[in-house]
């Protein structure tokens, strides 16, 4: 079976193949793996960000399906993804957490919104302290507020995306050599992530490009703006040549569409232009003008997970773009394997803390000091399909092209985390 899987992934190492071994999410007595493996997926499945949440749910369902078909966790072990609609609300998420606990689901994944992630991480840590025999591991695949792995870190939280500081460090390193960038407008969502993007952008540009002027800055309500044309008018009036935004979902889609419709001739530097729906909104008008900082894209040179990407796209007719979901399951699976099949959350958490393993984009490390994944990053631009750029994104005729690969050590950031660690079992 392993040989077949290696062939299926095109020669990926066994460390990477661990992804498809699955996540043991339900335990029997003594922490042994149960026949049914469950993972609670908690993100918006309704409301303005429903398209993003539904797409991410499909990511996890696809991985579970592959694991089940290939019996990658062993004979008789099946994976079940249990979806929960948190409506992008912190309050709803905490209510759902009680339901998840009652259902004895021991692993939770969430990613869309640091405003949800911060209280959720704290609630899980409190629950685990009070109920050590029902502990839960939190797999954060997309919430990137640096506080989650700094002042508000905890042992049970593991982040698989690069945080805001890491991405902005990579972006600023790239902008250092882009002399055409002279006047920057910062436009972000008014919650913890957007506020952090604006803060870090100002700090790093002042250090790496002191000649660049911040000519405007706005924070807008999360998921509430339907017409971004007033913001486009302000960007034009400020004579900005560049916009830096951490917006995602409809807030980025509508922003890009408004800029396109107004004929705004500026460059956009984004975190999430690859998220579902945004490529369609960009279309041809965004060619060579929209860039994103990301930990992968499907045209990365010598990408070994080709069939993962194409298989998902064939099944759902949607883009597979969240590699963090892939890495999260891979690392949990590897931790279970290193514990001889024992999926007890405490054992898995201790094993993941400090773990190094091979992944699609090279070696990754779950840094023990703060549980922030260390990984390479890329600056990619929106370009026409052709030659080695073969993956047509959302049938637009355009795709992502690597402008610069950023080694792990460049984006690595210090941490102020001082986590309390429970005793090893």
Task: Please explain how this structure is put together.
This protein has 14 helices and 15 strands. The chain has helices at 2-8, 14-17, 50-70, 90-102, 114-130, 164-175, 192-208, 229-237, 250-262, 278-282, 306-316, 323-338, 345-352, 408-411, and strands at residues 36-43, 78-85, 107-110, 137-140, 157-159, 183-189, 213-220, 242-245, 267-270, 290-294, 356-359, 362-366, 373-374, 377-384, 398-406. The longest helix is centred in the N-terminal third of the chain and has 21 residues, at 50-70. It has 425 residues and is α/β, with parallel strands linked by helices. Helix content is 37%, strand content 20%. The two termini are 32 Å apart. α4 (90-102) runs parallel beside α5, α6 runs parallel beside α7 (192-208) and α12 (323-338) crosses α13. A seven-stranded mixed sheet has the order 7-6-8-9-10-14-15, with helices on both faces. It is globular.
Topology:
Blueprint: H1 2-8, H2 14-17, E1 36-43, H3 50-70, E2 78-85, H4 90-102, E3 107-110, H5 114-130, E4 137-140, E5 157-159, H6 164-175, E6 183-189, H7 192-208, E7 213-220, H8 229-237, E8 242-245, H9 250-262, E9 267-270, H10 278-282, E10 290-294, H11 306-316, H12 323-338, H13 345-352, E11 356-359, E12 362-366, E13 373-374, E14 377-384, E15 398-406, H14 408-411
Parallel strand pairs: 1-2, 1-3, 3-4, 4-5, 6-7, 6-8, 8-9, 9-10
Antiparallel strand pairs: 10-14, 11-12, 12-13, 14-15
Helix pairs in contact: 4-5, 6-7, 12-13
């Amino acid at each position: 079976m392993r040989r077949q899987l290696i062939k299926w992934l095109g020669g990926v190492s066994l460390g990477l193949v661990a992804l498809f071994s699955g996540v043991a999410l339900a335990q029997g007595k003594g922490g042994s793996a149960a026949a049914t493996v469950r993972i609670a997926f908690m993100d918006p499945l309704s409301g303005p960000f429903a398209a993003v949440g539904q797409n991410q749910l499909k990511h996890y369902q696809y991985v579970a399906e592959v694991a089940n078909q290939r019996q990658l966790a062993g004979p008789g072990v099946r994976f079940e993804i249990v979806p929960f609609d948190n409506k992008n609300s912190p309050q709803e998420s905490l209510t759902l957490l009680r339901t998840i606990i009652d259902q004895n689901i021991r692993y939770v994944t969430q990613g869309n919104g640091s405003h949800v992630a911060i209280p959720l991480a704290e609630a899980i840590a409190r629950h685990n302290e009070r109920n050590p025999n029902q502990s839960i591991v939190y797999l954060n695949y997309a919430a990137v507020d640096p506080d989650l792995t700094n002042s508000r870190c905890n042992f049970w939280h593991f982040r698989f995306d690069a945080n805001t500081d890491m991405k902005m460090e990579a972006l600023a390193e790239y902008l250092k050599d882009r002399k055409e960038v002279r006047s920057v407008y910062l436009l972000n969502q008014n919650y913890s992530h957007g506020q952090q993007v604006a803060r870090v952008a100002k700090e790093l540009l002042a250090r790496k490009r002191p000649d660049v002027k911040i000519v405007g800055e706005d924070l807008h309500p999360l998921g509430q703006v339907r017409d971004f044309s007033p913001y486009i008018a302000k960007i034009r009036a400020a004579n900005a040549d560049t916009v830096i935004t951490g917006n995602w979902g409809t807030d980025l889609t509508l922003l890009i569409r408004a800029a396109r419709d107004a004929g705004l001739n500026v460059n956009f530097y984004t975190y999430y232009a690859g998220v579902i729906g945004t490529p369609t909104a960009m279309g041809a008008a965004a060619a060579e003008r929209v860039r994103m900082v990301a930990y992968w894209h499907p045209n990365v040179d010598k990408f070994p997970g080709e069939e993962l990407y194409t298989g998902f796209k064939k099944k759902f007719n949607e883009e597979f773009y969240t590699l963090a979901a892939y890495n999260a399951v891979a690392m949990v699976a590897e931790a279970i394997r290193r514990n001889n099949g024992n999926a007890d959350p405490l054992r898995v958490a201790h094993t993941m803390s400090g773990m190094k393993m091979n992944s699609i984009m090279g070696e990754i490390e779950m840094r023990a000091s703060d549980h922030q994944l260390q990984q390479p990053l890329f600056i990619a631009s929106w370009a026409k399909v052709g030659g080695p750029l073969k993956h047509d994104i959302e049938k637009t005729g355009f795709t992502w092209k690597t402008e610069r690969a950023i080694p792990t050590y460049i984006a690595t950031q210090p941490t102020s985390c001082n986590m309390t660690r429970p005793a090893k079992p």
